[in-house]
Design brief:
There is one protein chain. The protein is built from 10 helices and 7 strands. By secondary structure, it is α/β, with parallel strands linked by helices. Strand 6 and strand 7 (224-231) form a beta hairpin.
Length: 268
């Protein structure tokens, strides 16, 4: 069974990348064009997996938290040093994915993950350590070719819903942490199936939903369940939107820490 999971993961990586190479028109609109990376760059399901989840197919550990973002962006846009580091990791180096003050999204995630506890009951220190029970990915598995940021339509994201559901079936995560409203929608619909079905309270303001939602459980395979948690994005705009653009980034992060504390409390 463990060997099967390793093979399933490797096949999923290849299949998802192939879908972008073979069907480029399916992964673009009039503003955004997405593409796969060369296989000598990204050998995991997503570049984010190089931070947490690297080498899953070799270890096949139990996953406590699957973190899901929207999309990675354009890795070639002023980020040559980052890509060199990824290639170096592929070649066996122990270099970290994370480097402080490169992406504010990641800097804020470092602080937010301190709210959660690892298998030893200690706060996660994702800035300095890779954990076997964490796995990071973006829902959208393609990478932008342009300079634009934001504006990712749900239609393009959902082209990868089948791959995301397969990933969840392989990883069997206890909990899925969704960064941002659109990511939460895509995750929920990919796993729950009926796109007309919405969690109670979701139709209102997303901030209100984050503060008041009831525990959300998805059955992704027969008798296999995972918990889904709606969260604000950890980038600057997500931080400020969480406090309705009133206050400071530090105040926004503190507000988000309260949201993350609910995750620890809801874990049964």
């Amino acid at each position: 069974m463990q060997t099967d999971k390793a093979e399933q993961y490797r096949e999923l990586v290849e299949e998802s990348q192939k879908s972008y190479r073979d069907n480029p028109d399916d992964h673009k609109n009039n503003k955004i064009e997405l593409a796969a990376l060369d296989t000598d760059i990204c050998k995991e399901i997503n570049l984010y997996t190089y931070w947490q989840g690297l080498g899953y197919a070799k270890k096949i550990p139990h996953i406590k938290y699957l973190l899901v973002g929207q999309d990675w962006g354009n890795p070639f846009l002023g980020r040559k040093d980052f890509l060199k580091r990824i290639i170096s990791i592929n070649n066996g180096s122990n270099e970290p994915y994370y480097e402080k003050a490169v992406f504010d999204t990641d800097d804020n995630l470092v602080e937010l993950f301190k709210v959660l506890k690892d298998s030893e009951g200690k706060s996660y220190d994702i800035a300095t350590k890779r954990y076997d029970d964490l796995f990071f990915t973006n829902f959208c598995l393609g990478y932008r070719k342009g300079k634009e940021s934001g504006g990712m339509p749900k239609e393009l994201m959902k082209r990868d819903a089948v791959f995301f559901k397969q990933l969840v079936a392989i990883l069997e995560p206890e909990n899925i942490l969704c960064l941002g409203k659109r990511t939460f929608e895509c995750v929920f619909e990919a796993l729950c199936g009926d796109k007309t079905q919405k969690p109670e309270g979701f139709c209102g303001a997303y901030n209100v939903f984050i503060e008041n939602y009831k525990p959300i459980t998805a059955e992704y395979e027969e008798n296999k369940n995972t918990r889904i948690f709606p969260l604000a994005h950890s980038g600057y705009m997500g931080i400020m939107n969480r406090i309705n653009k009133k206050g400071t980034v530090d105040e926004g992060i503190e507000k988000q820490k309260e949201d993350w504390e609910k995750i620890a409390k809801q874990r049964g």
